[in-house]
Amino acid sequence: MTDSKLIRNFSIIAHIDHGKSTLADRILELTQTVSRREMLDQYLDDMDLEREHGITIKARAVRVLYNCKLDGKQYIFNLIDTPGHVDFSHEVSRSLAACEGAILIVDAAQGIQAQTLANVYLAIDNKLEIIPVINKIDLKSARPEEVRNEYGKILGVEKSKISEISAKTGQGVREILDRIVIDIPPPEGRLESPLQALIFDSQYNPYRGVIVLVRVVNGIIKAGMKIKFMGEKTDTIVEEVGVFAPKMIKKESLSMGEVGYIITGIKEVEGIVVGDTVTSFEEPARTNLPGYKKPKPMVYCGLFPLQGGDYENLRDALGKLSLNDSSLDFAPEVSTALGFGFRCGFLGLLHMEIVKERLEREYDLKLITTSPNVAYEIIKSDGSTMEVKRPSDFPSEEKILEIREPFVEATIITPKDYIGDVMNLANSRRGNFMDMQYLSVERVEIKYLLPLSEIIVDFFNLLKTVTSGFASLDYEILDYRHSDLVKLDILVAGKKIDELSIITHKEKAYRLGRALTVKLRKLISRENFEVSIQAAIGKRIIAKESLAPYRKDVTSGLYGGDITRKRKVLEKQKKGKKKMKKIGKVSIPDEAFMSFYEIDTTK
Fold it and tell me: Which residues are registered as beta bridge partners of 446?
């Protein structure tokens, strides 16, 4: 039985690219959890996508043993490496729910960034002990003293409690390991109490079923024990328990304070929900653990298989992926242009792109995505309220009393030289200035109230462009607010293409409609009849482009004779084209459904 006083559960949190995964590598190396022969950079980032993008997408839990020279005891560290991008903040909140402490890393060259603040507030909300660290002190551009001052001014941290390290070289990392022992408290709980274990992640194995990652809060869990999932009211026999060190290692049991895995044998993915409480079937606990709030998706798009026969495969893949990513939301959808698919909800655009890539790589699918949009609240003329997740579900204009869209409080941290460019960008996206304060002599924090729909596509990329890559962005969803919005429909050959419909602000509708019709004219192939491409608001056409038809020389086979012979043939061709214009079908290429991405909406 493991002594809970020798257990330390902690997470590593930081802004993206500040060195979380590198510090995790050094901890694995210094504790000899992974041998030098097996060691790779970003060892815990084992997905190809993570290595290609250079970011952590999934939180990773690993158990390491540390022989502390301060007291000569061997401690069990349960380390959770977390993502840094704003789209994966739910992974951070899930990880923190299973910890008592957190190592907060700040880059010595970049200083405190927007996501740093967001992660600190998450840790404070979870009442965690925070160990402040300045990383990358070996860089020539490092400015540790300035960063120390930022720590003190923004987070109220005493300078004497801030450690300076280089995760790359290993300098100062042993001091961090000792601080984990001293500063982070051991887990609290009762071994003799009924079993209560928090599910903080899960994954699917085609041979063994659902593998559940748990933090045992009270009691003990053993192989062969019958357990119950309190939220879903399902039960099963535990086939195996163990820990990640970092490979799966089988154990006889997991006791109070430990972090590990349970192999359930359950093959139906609907029976497991991240955040649920595991308890004993024979002696169940009276109450669920608090868990954490499931994140609400804010960006929606349609996902359709290129091959119609892959619909069932896509449904199974989404179900299995949602085990590993609880923020993914999906429901069946039917499109006249694309067939059967799913309307999926994501936390942001990067989240959407990563999910699509994972589905294509891990489940061998070829997918089409429609233009992303947010969810809107509509107050109808009869006083009722409805939530709309796709433009095609919008009621007609005469039935709408008011349209509300989600707004965010965006926090932008940038060097002072770029203040004007940042404010111009935010104002072009219907932003309202809220506050500005200097974090140091050179860096400033700017807060803006912005519609979520204005920042989900390319706002972050444009922000990096106008600030030469120095600015950082974080945002918090506030509420739904009234906006003067309209639904922009696209008609091809007189037929409305629902998947190309967009919700936009009234002031931008004409420019966007014009840009879309011009873009589509270049993408859609010519036919034997004239194809009109129109942008409309309600019944009013606001922009139009035409695609000229192919012309076949039907008179080439006529030699001599009266001119009326040619006129008859040309008249017959004219009637045929007119008929084709009514019944002919136009093929819409896959690229057309993502054409919104390539349009600069700031102009």
Answer: 412, 436
Which residues make beta-bridge pairs with 403?
378
Q: What pLDDT does 47 receive?
A: 46
Q: Quick one: CA dihedral 131, 134, 136, 138, positive or negative?
A: negative
**Alpha-carbon torsion (447, 451, 455, 456), positive or negative:** positive
The tens digit of pLDDT for each residue in 130-145 reads: 899 999 898 888 888 8
Residue range of the domain that includes 219? 196-280
Secondary structure, 3-state, 537-570: ECCEEEEEEEECCCCCCCCCCCCCCCHHHHHHHH
> What number of other Cβ atoms are within 10 A of residue 506's Cβ?
11
Phi, then psi, of 543 in degrees rounded to 5: -155, 145
What is the residue-wise DSSP string for 381-398? TTS-EEEESSGGGPPPGG
Most confident option among 87-91, 447-451, 482-486? 447-451
- DSSP lists the bridge partners of residue 576 as none
Q: At residue 78, what is the residue type?
A: N
Show which of 126, 148, 183 is a domain's final residue.
183
285 in any annotated domain: no
Quick: pLDDT tens for 404-450.
Answer: 999 989 888 888 899 999 999 999 989 999 999 888 788 899 999 99
Secondary structure of 208-271 in HEC code, one letter for each residue: CEEEEEEEEEECEEECCCEEEECCCCEEEECCEEEEECCCEEEECEEECCCEEEEECCCCCHHH
Q: Is the pLDDT of residue 246 over 50?
A: yes
Same domain, 246 and 207: yes
Instruction: Kindly state the average pLDDT of the residues 196-223.
Output: 84
CATH, residue 358: 3.30.70.870
pTM of the model: 0.70
Report how far residue 601's alpha carbon sits from residue 502's, in angstroms, rounded to the nearest whole number: 13
At 463, is the secondary structure helix, strand, or coil?
helix
